[in-house]
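Person: Please work through this fold.
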Amino acid sequence: MTALDPADPAVLAAARRERRAFELHRLVAAKIRQEPALFDRAREILKRWQATVSPGSKRYLDEWERLMDQGIEVTLRVALQDTERKSSPFSTLLSSQEREAWRRETAE
């Protein structure tokens, strides 16, 4: 097995995406814990997306649905651990100001 070169632009880009995803989910997790009704809102968003999604993306949304069926804490724990998870319905729960702050904080 070949070791990854930490200076490789592709490795750096992947690390940056992972860090940004973690920070996004960290912000959303805190917000949901303060206002648990937002979890239900994320479920509604997920249902809307499932009705209009392309077949290639459906499996990601189905994974989120299975995860969300396990409850808030399980979902948030996994979202914070698995930053490679695609099509997160939680990103829409941040206000435009919160998203802008997140962009500034995670920009390089």
